[in-house]
Amino acid sequence: GFPPLVFSGIQPTGNLHLGNYLGAIKKFVALQDDHDCIFCVVDLHALTAQLVQDDLVSQTRQIAAAYLAAGIDAEKHIVFNQSRVAGHAELAWIFNCVARIGWMNRMTQFKDKAGKDRENASLGLLAYPSLMAADILLYRATHVPVGDDQKQHLELARDIATKFNNDFSARIAAAGLGVPMRMGEERVNGYFPLTEPLIEGPATRVMSLKDGAKKMSKSDPSDLSRINLTDDADTIARKIRKAKTDPLPLPDSVEGLSGRPEADNLVGIYAALADTTKAGVIAREGGRQFSEFKPALVDLAVEKLAPITDAMRRIMADPAEIDRVLKRGGERANEIAARTMGDVKRIVGL
Ligand code: ADP
Ligand code: NA
């Protein structure tokens, strides 16, 4: 099979928030002890939503700073930004020719982001999952820690890998590049792995603090809807105090959270920050009023986030050092990427 390798990325689109931290970055940190990892700042993806941008470079540095501040070891693992490694765009083009338009049209994120005026969305926004598949498969990564919102894109990456492996199976075999793997019931030799998403724990989809039906998002116009990683303790306290809740106390059992999205969300956030489960939180906090639970959540959030916020600020004060890390990471990534692109060109016949 394929050697285990973890890949993930975050877009440099501002307002890095608690959802990004609990759904992604915190998991990166947990995985790095036992796995080889590649963590990317996916700056090419940032162009899909908005073409002309003022500060893509500083936004990119900010995501890199968050990775480092959270404790990712950039010596042991690879930390870089996507646009430095030409293979991402190159492999995405091949994948655009593997993937079918119908696959892209079905993506719920595209439908959400394109809105009603779909004809006016960028072609890049439609092809986004193809570039994401390239990000992952350029390194033949086996595992991708992400939030729940990325599940459908991961399935599409598997569809692309499957079609590539099938369509080129004879060429892959002739070039001696096949790796024994399972595809469904079959045992075959493929070139790309069927990458598994790692979506686990109590905070795979952190919801808006203002609307239990919407996910916490960078692009939400209401700053009160999210806790940003740059928020100070007072701001975190104010946002949690103002978070929407229902009038009931916390339930006595975790089942009692169903049908109570705001309570479920705050308990999930507490559980993820405390490295426990929702049931574990309810065992201790069940029956309490929000007027008691919210201050406990504030204390926990500040305790866990303040060191990261402080470290981010320190790291951001030395942009040249961040650039050095990204450059070195890019060189290391490119060594792997160039090998893959050499293989892919041989397989495709370019
Ligand atoms: P956003 O969705 O905020 O624009 P990205 O698309 O760059 O951010 O996502 C970065 C990572 O953060 C992805 O793994 C994504 O699944 C995760 N993520 C984003 N929002 C949330 C959320 N509300 N809850 C949990 N994980 C999230
Ligand atoms: Na996202």
Automatic annotation (TrEMBL):
Family in the record: Belongs to the class-I aminoacyl-tRNA synthetase family.
Enzyme class: ligase
Subcellular location, record wording: Cytoplasm
GO BP field: tryptophanyl-tRNA aminoacylation
Subunit structure, as described in the record: Homodimer.
Protein name: Tryptophan--tRNA ligase
Pfam families reported in the protein's UniProt record: tRNA-synt_1b
Organism for this UniProt entry: Aureimonas endophytica
Residue positions binding L-tryptophan: 135
Recorded name of the encoding gene: trpS
HAMAP family per the UniProt record, alphabetical: Trp_tRNA_synth_B (MF_00140_B)
Placement of sequence motif 'HIGH' region: 12-20
UniProt keyword annotations, A-Z: Aminoacyl-tRNA synthetase, ATP-binding, Cytoplasm, Ligase, Nucleotide-binding, Protein biosynthesis
Renumbered ranges of motif 'KMSKS' region: 215-219
